[in-house]
Predict the structure.
Amino acid sequence: MKISSETLALLKNFASINMNMLFRPGDMISTISASRSVFAKAQIKETIPNEFAIYELNSLLAMMTIVENQEVEFNDKSVSISSPAGKFEYFYSDPETVVAAPTGTIDQVDVYRFTLTAEDVQMIMKAASITSAPSISVTSRDQSVVLSVGDRKNPTSSNFKKEVGTCFEPFDVFIAVENLKVIPDAYEVSVSKIPKGKAKFLYFKHMSRQLQYWIACEPDSIL
């Protein structure tokens, strides 16, 4: 089979979350960071025929992209990547050596939802880089919900703010900038939590495709 450019872009993004990955049969792929603070899941155009583990995803992607339109075959113990220039063979790893993403669905309560355009996401990422900010916050105060990029411990540090909506319920959640590993596109974002649990997270649901990210909020978040 040939791997689409969309799937290759997804895999490159997932490799930024975790360099290793467990592939399962079907058209869904998922990954989770080693710290378990970022979980991502997506549907792809291709169908994976069997389960296998990849320890160094970037190495496999380098083989797949060195020449365009290569033929990829998933075998029992390895994946072969062929073109007129020659053939690569990448052997699978022991599944016990990789951090496998969980299966099933996440039971969550969405407290507040707002939307971000692709331009919004790009601006947030640029703002974080320009200000060297460590965190991204979503705060509901005085019926106004504001997304801010900055240093919560230093009120006089450079920052970026954007009002994203209104809400009568107060909350103040934040994630580490380093965990914002989403592809810069349009998303519906939910401020969410686990029912009867302490876990809080920002849930990014892509507006036009089956692509989702769950990013854990930092422990001091209030929801």
Notes: The helical segments are 5-17, 57-65, 118-131.
